[in-house]
């Protein structure tokens, strides 16, 4: 069985199905919706999923290693909010950025440490740290929900940067996707992630540094979140910390899971993220064009995510004999 | 005694180290941490916030507590079953909305509103239960998704109907009563929460469905293999959680007379934190409703207290995040390491200075001088037996012994080649004795005192005595009943060697050397068991004196034999008759010449005697070294000793070659032969005693000639 990288096109797997649905949706929307096929709209679709896709890349690496990172959105919003707050209160740029980098590193390490060395389930660790990061930054470090980007700062300039009429975040997404692809496919630790995700005990028994690798994944995810946050601030000229309470986090999981990255770990890759992001991007854009209210969009997304998880459960079933105790 | 030793003896004999280990064996230590946290939280906020404990303030916050603790109760049950329910916040909000919609917009009765609320919760819970229980999806993600779904639905409904609810004129006395009034000083929500908690607690601890939930949470696979309907059980836990959340939602609808965008927000993480902080284990099987309630009070006090102290937005999340992380980590580490800590701490050695002894070495010229006589014994059942601790013969010369497998094996006279399993008891049958009517009485290690009738009917006589007031571990249970003998009036006197260790850990007791051995008596007339003597270092063999007016019992780790008087002026007291022997005494039995046989299960060594004066060294040894490298008493050499009624030593014999009977735990004289057993041996020896009465038998000595 080929589970890493190249899929078997002859068999119909989840990724293939999702890709087909995305194509069908795309064609249907192109025919049925006015202005969908417009180049500007297509660029908007790609742009809208760029940040989502970047976050999903970090999430994908963690999920492949049989974990999950529910603190990603909190780290994304709060690190950048703190950074901007520091800038607005007159801290030198270099120092402020160093603070934020250190903070992001610390949270990534904390996540990794608790999961790897204290054996606490990832889902609880990251739920707790996400709540903590939001609460701490919101109550102690910043004064209001939204923090603006200072006039003329490089983050603002980044938002206006375009190449071939395509916004910069698309290129960042593409670049990061390529880097992650290289990492997962051609580096030793990247390959090890699959083994560690598939069977952590066996991976440890044959001598892989399973625990340091786990820590690395959470640190990686935290840094990816920082990048995504900077891009968000760049395009919106501010960061709104209320995004932490929105459904963005579930969109990220949705992109990863719907693209075919199994939640039980050891399966999937960068291409699954791209396919998932494409479907979600087209869907969100189409719903916006049809003018479905945001609340209903959430409902529809939740329904799709539920469907994705059910399909995941059917494709990767668990039964009473093989399920691990305490695996929730 | 040097000053150092005096200090050591005070330190280790007066400080009750063993209590720490005994407390750790208690299940209630799991509750101690959340309980202390609860007290600390209440004390802190009670002292910081003025008027925290005032009745009016309490009533408002307890109303909220009532609603919240119901949600936590539901969450607790789901977690006990090995799942998790993050959708409680959505269920809570949607149920609240259902009630509001039915009451204010449809203007129906409050009871119909309640029904709508409950239906919402049950349906939502059933969906969760179907997905997680029957489709076997991951609980965390699935309920996360149903949470988003429910939340989105609620947001849509609330924005659509908010204005209509505002304009509604519907009122109800019942609603006002539930929302505002109190009943015997407590609000309705608190009463309901208390009732729900009690019912749930009883259901979990005392009913079949509750046990199934705990079994599934404790080990899903074992529960499945044991035939429990795992899927249905899991399904029901989610339905129950939905039910609990929906009552909470109904109550808040009554309290606030409406539903807003903030209803049930962050409730799931609060409920989860509450359950985990209270000590309900992730992954299931461990926890209780009470723990969940303690956690609910802690979490609600914290979050409300912080709001009232005026901390800004986000503080709640910060504190919840910290509490959740800390509680989950403690829970995981505690579960994982508790037995390790227990193993390390449990052995708590005491100081003992053994008295000077006489040598038992061949050629030393002392009465204890060992030799090689037992190596000449013929063997019985070689290779068929494992661990014949005690041996006994009946009136028909058949030979009985217990084995490691919990059986009593009978070898048939006259050649003892043919054997059969006489009875299967379980445990480890140790001491044996025949009573007047031919029942075989046995002390069964780890089980109690048993009787086997001649037609093989096994009956338990006693498994417990009365509990002492100062005990922490239950010392009523007989842990290691070791040997028994029967008085002429039919009472059975027997020993329970230790209160601290199970029968198979008897060697650990020698390292600790704490005096917890007992002498007990079982009265067949009323079936009662009484403790006669307590506080001996491993009480072992018991033998009734020839006249039946006193008995001898061995105190193994102190190398002493005591005489306990049943009648006469000294009745009820014990005196030491042999002290400072060179070997560790085991069973004692009558000899044909009016003396007594005593087995030595091992020999004292200068090194172990020295270690007994260094409890600190033994403590370090048990903590730092693997068990197979510990310094144990020497149980590779033993022997048989004959002593007189006054305690004088007549002779000693052994097997210094170590070939047949290196250590001896029992011997029984019968018609001029000595039958020898050893708890670590694989045979019974039959040794011809020079000059012994060839007609003397033990049953006749006890109960007279054949009737």
Automatic annotation (TrEMBL), chain A:
<dbReference type="GO" id="GO:0022857">
    <property type="term" value="F:transmembrane transporter activity"/>
</dbReference>
<feature type="transmembrane region" description="Helical">
    <location>
        <begin position="166"/>
        <end position="184"/>
    </location>
</feature>
<keyword id="KW-0812">Transmembrane</keyword>
<feature type="transmembrane region" description="Helical">
    <location>
        <begin position="44"/>
        <end position="64"/>
    </location>
</feature>
<dbReference type="Pfam" id="PF02653">
    <property type="entry name" value="BPD_transp_2"/>
</dbReference>
<keyword id="KW-1003">Cell membrane</keyword>
<feature type="transmembrane region" description="Helical">
    <location>
        <begin position="248"/>
        <end position="266"/>
    </location>
</feature>
<feature type="transmembrane region" description="Helical">
    <location>
        <begin position="273"/>
        <end position="290"/>
    </location>
</feature>
<dbReference type="InterPro" id="IPR001851">
    <property type="entry name" value="ABC_transp_permease"/>
</dbReference>
<feature type="transmembrane region" description="Helical">
    <location>
        <begin position="214"/>
        <end position="236"/>
    </location>
</feature>
<feature type="transmembrane region" description="Helical">
    <location>
        <begin position="16"/>
        <end position="37"/>
    </location>
</feature>
<feature type="transmembrane region" description="Helical">
    <location>
        <begin position="70"/>
        <end position="87"/>
    </location>
</feature>
<dbReference type="GO" id="GO:0005886">
    <property type="term" value="C:plasma membrane"/>
</dbReference>
<keyword id="KW-1133">Transmembrane helix</keyword>
<keyword id="KW-0472">Membrane</keyword>
<keyword id="KW-0997">Cell inner membrane</keyword>
<keyword id="KW-0813">Transport</keyword>
<feature type="transmembrane region" description="Helical">
    <location>
        <begin position="94"/>
        <end position="118"/>
    </location>
</feature>
<protein>
    <submittedName>
        <fullName>ABC transporter permease</fullName>
    </submittedName>
</protein>
TrEMBL record, chain B:
<dbReference type="Pfam" id="PF20067">
    <property type="entry name" value="SSL_N"/>
</dbReference>
<feature type="domain" description="Strictosidine synthase conserved region">
    <location>
        <begin position="482"/>
        <end position="568"/>
    </location>
</feature>
<dbReference type="Pfam" id="PF02653">
    <property type="entry name" value="BPD_transp_2"/>
</dbReference>
<keyword id="KW-0812">Transmembrane</keyword>
<keyword id="KW-1003">Cell membrane</keyword>
<feature type="transmembrane region" description="Helical">
    <location>
        <begin position="139"/>
        <end position="163"/>
    </location>
</feature>
<dbReference type="InterPro" id="IPR001851">
    <property type="entry name" value="ABC_transp_permease"/>
</dbReference>
<dbReference type="GO" id="GO:0005886">
    <property type="term" value="C:plasma membrane"/>
</dbReference>
<feature type="transmembrane region" description="Helical">
    <location>
        <begin position="183"/>
        <end position="204"/>
    </location>
</feature>
<feature type="transmembrane region" description="Helical">
    <location>
        <begin position="292"/>
        <end position="311"/>
    </location>
</feature>
<keyword id="KW-0472">Membrane</keyword>
<feature type="transmembrane region" description="Helical">
    <location>
        <begin position="234"/>
        <end position="253"/>
    </location>
</feature>
<dbReference type="GO" id="GO:0022857">
    <property type="term" value="F:transmembrane transporter activity"/>
</dbReference>
<protein>
    <submittedName>
        <fullName>Inner-membrane translocator</fullName>
    </submittedName>
</protein>
<feature type="transmembrane region" description="Helical">
    <location>
        <begin position="74"/>
        <end position="104"/>
    </location>
</feature>
<keyword id="KW-1133">Transmembrane helix</keyword>
<feature type="transmembrane region" description="Helical">
    <location>
        <begin position="265"/>
        <end position="285"/>
    </location>
</feature>
<dbReference type="InterPro" id="IPR011042">
    <property type="entry name" value="6-blade_b-propeller_TolB-like"/>
</dbReference>
<feature type="transmembrane region" description="Helical">
    <location>
        <begin position="32"/>
        <end position="53"/>
    </location>
</feature>
<dbReference type="Pfam" id="PF03088">
    <property type="entry name" value="Str_synth"/>
</dbReference>
<feature type="transmembrane region" description="Helical">
    <location>
        <begin position="110"/>
        <end position="132"/>
    </location>
</feature>
<dbReference type="InterPro" id="IPR018119">
    <property type="entry name" value="Strictosidine_synth_cons-reg"/>
</dbReference>
């Amino acid at each position: 069985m080929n589970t890493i990288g190249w899929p078997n096109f002859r068999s119909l797997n989840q990724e293939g199905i999702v890709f087909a649905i995305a194509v069908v949706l795309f064609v249907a929307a192109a025919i049925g919706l006015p202005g969908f096929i417009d180049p500007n709209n297509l660029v908007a679709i790609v742009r809208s999923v760029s940040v989502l896709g970047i976050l999903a890349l970090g999430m994908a690496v963690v999920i492949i290693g049989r974990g999950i990172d529910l603190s990603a959105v909190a780290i994304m919003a709060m690190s950048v909010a703190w950074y901007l707050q520091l800038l607005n209160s007159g801290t030198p740029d270099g120092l402020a950025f160093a603070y934020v980098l250190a903070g992001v590193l610390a949270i990534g390490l904390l996540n990794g440490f608790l999961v790897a060395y204290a054996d606490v389930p990832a889902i609880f660790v990251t739920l707790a740290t996400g709540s903590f990061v939001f609460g701490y930054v919101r109550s102690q470090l910043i004064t209001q929900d939204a923090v603006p980007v200072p006039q003329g700062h490089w983050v603002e300039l980044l938002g206006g940067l375009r190449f071939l009429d395509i916004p910069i975040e698309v290129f960042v997404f593409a670049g990061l996707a390529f880097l992650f692809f290289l990492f997962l496919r051609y580096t030793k630790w990247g390959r090890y992630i699959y083994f560690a995700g598939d069977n952590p005990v066996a991976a440890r028994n044959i001598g892989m540094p399973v625990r340091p690798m786990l820590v690395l994944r959470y640190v990686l995810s935290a840094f990816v979140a920082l990048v995504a946050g900077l891009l968000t601030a760049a395009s919106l000229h501010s960061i709104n910390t209320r995004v932490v309470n929105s459904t963005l986090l579930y969109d990220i999981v949705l992109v990863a899971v719907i693209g075919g990255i199994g939640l039980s770990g050891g399966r999937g890759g960068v291409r699954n993220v791209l396919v998932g992001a494409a479907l979600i991007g087209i869907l969100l854009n189409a719903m916006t064009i049809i003018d479905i209210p945001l609340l209903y969009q959430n409902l529809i997304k939740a329904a799709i995510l539920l469907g994705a998880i059910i399909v995941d459960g059917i494709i990767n079933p668990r039964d009473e004999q093989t399920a691990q105790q305490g695996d929730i | 005694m040097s000053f150092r030793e005096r200090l050591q003896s005070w330190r280790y004999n007066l400080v009750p180290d063993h209590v720490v280990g005994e407390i750790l064996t208690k299940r209630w230590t799991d509750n101690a941490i959340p309980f202390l946290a609860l007290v600390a939280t209440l004390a802190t906020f009670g002292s910081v916030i003025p008027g925290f404990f005032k009745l009016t303030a309490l009533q408002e916050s307890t109303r909220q507590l009532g609603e919240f603790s119901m949600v936590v109760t539901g969450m607790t049950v789901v977690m006990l079953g090995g799942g998790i329910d993050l959708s409680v916040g959505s269920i809570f909000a949607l149920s609240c909305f259902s009630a509001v919609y039915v009451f204010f917009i449809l203007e129906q009765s409050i009871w119909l509103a309640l029904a709508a609320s409950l239906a919402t919760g049950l349906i939502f819970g059933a969906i969760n239960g179907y997905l997680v229980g029957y489709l076997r999806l991951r609980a965390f993600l699935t309920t996360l998704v149903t949470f988003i779904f429910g939340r989105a639905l609620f947001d849509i409904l609330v924005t659509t109907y908010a204005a209509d609810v505002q304009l509604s004129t519907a009122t109800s006395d019942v609603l006002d009563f539930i929302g505002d009034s109190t009943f015997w000083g407590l609000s309705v929500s608190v009463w309901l929460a208390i009732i729900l908690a009690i019912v749930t607690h009883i259901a979990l601890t005392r009913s079949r469905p509750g046990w199934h939930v705990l079994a599934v949470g404790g080990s899903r696979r074992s529960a499945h293999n044991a035939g429990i309907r795992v899927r249905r059980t899991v399904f029901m836990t989610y339905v129950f959680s939905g039910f609990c959340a929906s009552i909470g939602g109904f109550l808040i609808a009554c309290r606030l007379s409406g539903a807003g965008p903030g209803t049930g927000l962050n409730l799931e993480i609060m409920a989860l934190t509450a359950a985990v902080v209270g000590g309900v284990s992730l992954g299931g099987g461990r926890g209780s409703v009470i723990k969940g309630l303690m956690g609910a009070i802690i979490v609600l006090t914290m979050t409300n207290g912080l709001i009232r102290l005026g901390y800004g937005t986000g503080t709640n999340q910060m504190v919840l995040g910290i509490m959740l992380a800390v509680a989950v980590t403690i829970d995981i580490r505690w579960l994982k390491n508790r037995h390790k800590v227990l193993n390390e701490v449990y052995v708590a050695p005491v100081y003992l200075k053994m008295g000077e002894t006489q040598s038992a070495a061949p050629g030393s010229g002392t009465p204890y001088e060992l030799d090689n006589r037992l190596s000449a014994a013929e063997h019985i059942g070689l290779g068929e037996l494992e661990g014949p601790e005690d041996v006994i013969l009946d009136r028909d010369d058949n030979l009985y012994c217990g084995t490691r497998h919990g059986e009593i094996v009978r070898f048939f006279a006259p050649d003892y080649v043919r054997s059969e399993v006489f009875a299967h008891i379980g445990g480890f049958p140790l001491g044996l004795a025949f009573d007047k009517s031919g029942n075989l009485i046995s002390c069964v290690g780890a089980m109690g005192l048993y009787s086997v009738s001649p037609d093989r009917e096994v009956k338990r006589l006693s498994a417990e005595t009365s509990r002492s007031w100062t005990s922490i571990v239950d010392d009523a249970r007989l842990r290691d009943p070791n040997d028994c003998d029967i008085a002429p009036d039919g009472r059975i006197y027997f020993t329970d060697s230790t209160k601290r260790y199970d029968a198979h850990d008897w060697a650990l007791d020698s390292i600790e050397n704490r005096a917890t051995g007992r002498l007990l008596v079982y009265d067949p007339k009323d079936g009662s068991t009484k403790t006669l003597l307590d506080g001996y270092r491993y009480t072992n063999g018991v033998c009734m004196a020839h006249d039946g007016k006193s008995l001898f019992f061995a105190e193994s780790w102190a190398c002493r034999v005591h005489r306990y008087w049943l009648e006469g002026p000294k009745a009820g007291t014990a005196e030491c008759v042999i002290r400072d022997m060179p070997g560790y005494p085991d069973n004692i039995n009558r000899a044909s010449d009016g003396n007594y046989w005593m087995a030595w299960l091992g020999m004292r060594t200068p090194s172990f005697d020295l270690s007994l004066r260094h409890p600190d060294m033994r403590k370090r040894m048990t903590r730092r070294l693997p068990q197979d490298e510990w310094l144990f008493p020497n149980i590779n050499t033993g022997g048989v000793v004959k002593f007189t009624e006054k305690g004088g030593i007549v002779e000693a014999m052994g097997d210094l070659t170590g070939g047949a009977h290196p250590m001896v735990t029992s011997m029984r004289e019968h018609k001029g032969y000595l039958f020898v057993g050893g708890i670590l041996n694989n045979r019974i020896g039959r040794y011809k005693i020079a000059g012994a009465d060839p007609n003397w038998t033990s049953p006749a000595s006890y109960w007279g000639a054949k009737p």
